[in-house]
Amino acid sequence: MSTPGVLSFTLQGWEQVLAKVKRALVYLDAACAESLHWGCGPTRLMEAVGGPVCHLREFQPNAVGGNAEQPKAVFVLSCLLKGRTVETLRDIISRSHFQYCVVVTALSHAVHLTANHVPAAAAAELEGQQPVFEQLEEKLCEWMGNMNYTAEVLHVPLLLAPIAPYLALTPAFASLFPLLSQDIHLLNSARPDKRRLGSLGEVDSTALTPELILQMRCLVSGLSSLCEHLGVREECFAVGALSRVIAADLANYVPAKNRRKTAAGRASVVFVDRTLDLTGAVGHHGDNLAEKIISVLPQLPGHTNDVMVNMEELTALQTQEEDQNVIAPGCLAQANDLAAKALWEALLNTKHKEAVMEVRRHLVEAASRENLPIKMSMGRVTPGQLTSYIQLFKNNLKALRNHCGILQLGLATVQTLKHPQTAKWDNFLAFERLLLQSIGESGMSVVLNQLLPMFKPSTQRTNDDYGPEELLILLTYVYSVIGEFTVDKDLGEAEEKVKKALVQVFCEESELSPLLQKITEGCWHPVTGAEVAQ
């Protein structure tokens, strides 16, 4: 898979969208906004919209509609044009004054046929036709109030958010998670006794729920479009139960079969279930600055892979409440800033110490180009030293504009190095090594008993103690590295103690984080019956 091909795949998709947005209200859902964010940046979209005012809006039921001076709308969506999505389209258009509506969907017409339960044989006969899209175009005109108005529905494969030339993510499928052994019971509940599944190894597409089949087909559609853009016929490999099903579905996907007949190149595609590397996801083994930045700084709202960078150090905030300015957060994605993109790739590719030195080098070079009075210093790079370089740009509007990307990454580095959680990173790593040693020497029950004293309520914790999220990370790490094990009396008793201690910690928290609220939603205290989230 060539790097230019992967990047151009996203850019080519957005160029098709940008060609439609001139002087339009643009509504994006979260996944498409994230693809834009990393792919070409919102500035390109605003330039394409043109006009004195650019209106970008989140696609949601209560989104503001268009007034009489706003006759055109473009909706850019990552989801199926079905159900709640169509209802939201209807609600927004009905309370607006649109005369021209364009709906861009990241999912192919073939997927929409699957979602509408069209049999494969009938779908094959519709090749070259798009009845689902055509029916929605008629509905759009009806909602606009005049069948002579203009409506377009088109497919653009906005699958990827390319965070680096060699690394792209799929925001629309961030919640797609592999099947677990416990899911066998749920799958069997909808199957006759004679066709009951014995293990995950027996799962195929016919055993999945309709919702999961649709989500899988949506992913397959995007991957097939990527392979078409690259001009390759893929050979699929899979590790894990759900990955095996997805690989088989891509192999049997009718548009993919037709594409492979004429593709000149070849590519290997490896699918791996996320559950097979939970240790890597929760461990603190990495010596990578980008990993620490993403782990420590608060998440950028609506995004799965970017963070908020506090930019107040570069602005002169007024102290009077009535004149208080709102400072938008910085971020890691700098799609149109070549220097910042080079620095971001260095943060991803190099070890922590080298990455921090790269940040200093880029700040020094930026200050030199602006003729700022920088004082060079050698030796170890400190947060204070980086801050002093960044402060040189304060209130210098021209310099801020010229090097905004570098400054955002520089501040992200400083804020990460100063963050209390970063100090815990090495402690986590050391403790994980001790846990590994204990598992090898003493077994799981001993390890859990070693963890018990660490379960402390908020009123008894110090800054050096682990909170609920960190305890869950440690437990996930332990159970991931140990693999399969036999439950005996000692282990059963140790697990019960850990469960009770964890529930007690959750119940005594004054406020749960958003993540813990999601985890504990619907969970009940085993003794009192009180809801843990409360």
Can you walk me through this structure?
This protein has 534 residues and is an alpha/beta fold. It has 4 domains: 3-161, Rossmann fold, CATH 3.40.50; 175-280, no CATH class; 289-418, no CATH class; 423-520, no CATH class. Helices cover 50% and strands 9% of the residues. The chain is built from 23 helices and 9 strands. Strands 2-1-3-4-5 form a 5-stranded parallel beta sheet. A two-stranded antiparallel ribbon has the order 6-7. A two-stranded parallel ribbon has the order 8-9. The longest helix has 23 residues, at 420-442. Mean pLDDT is 86; it is low at 317-323 and 523-534.
Please summarize what this structure is.
The protein is of the alpha/beta class. The protein is 50% helix and 9% strand.
Topology overview:
Elements: H1 3-18, E1 25-28, H2 30-39, H3 42-49, E2 56-58, E3 72-77, H4 84-94, E4 100-105, H5 109-115, H6 120-125, H7 131-144, E5 150-155, E6 161-164, E7 167-169, H8 183-188, H9 210-230, E8 232-239, H10 241-252, H11 254-262, E9 265-272, H12 278-282, H13 289-296, H14 338-349, H15 352-369, H16 383-391, H17 397-402, H18 404-418, H19 420-442, H20 444-451, H21 468-482, H22 489-507, H23 514-520
Helix pairs in contact: 4-7, 5-9, 9-10, 9-11, 13-18, 14-15, 14-18, 15-16, 15-18, 16-18, 19-20, 19-21, 20-22
